[in-house]
From TrEMBL:
Lineage: Bacteria, Pseudomonadati, Bacteroidota, Flavobacteriia, Flavobacteriales
Domain HTH arsR-type: from-to ranges: 1-84
UniProt-listed NCBIfam families: HTH_metalloreg, repress_SdpR
CDD domains: HTH_ARSR (cd00090)
Keyword Transcription regulation attributed: yes
The entry's keywords: DNA-binding, Transcription, Transcription regulation
Species per Swiss-Prot/TrEMBL record: Algibacter luteus
UniProt-recorded Gene Ontology molecular function terms: DNA binding; DNA-binding transcription factor activity
InterPro entries, sorted: ArsR-like_HTH, HTH_ArsR_DNA-bd_dom, HTH_MetalResp_TranReg, SdpR-like_repress, WH-like_DNA-bd_sf, WH_DNA-bd_sf
Protein name: Transcriptional regulator, ArsR family
Pfam families linked to this entry: HTH_5
DNA-binding is among the record's keywords: yes
């Protein structure tokens, strides 16, 4: 769960999660929304993947990224258990 909190601790990664909430996108489409380098976007995507917040699937010459909502559900359930 530490990797999940680390991934969500960055504003750019939270913005990427917000984008993927709307629709699946490839790295180029994501990069177009930010004023940072494509390698930096790839780094952020890698951190999000390692935290299981996003998944990727090769589609032709592109890799499409999707939000993994099940990990977010797990996080919310865990948070709810803290309330007494």
């Amino acid at each position: 769960m530490n990797s999940l909190f680390k991934a969500l601790n960055d504003e750019t990664r939270r913005q990427i999660v917000e984008l993927l909430k709307e629709k699946d996108m490839n790295a180029g489409e994501i990069a177009e929304r930010f004023n940072i380098s494509k390698p930096s976007i790839s780094h952020h995507l890698d951190i999000l993947k390692r935290a299981d917040l996003i998944t990727s699937e090769k589609k032709g010459q592109f890799v499409e990224y999707s939000l993994n909502t099940s990990i977010l559900e797990d996080l919310l359930n865990w948070i709810l258990t803290l309330k007494k």
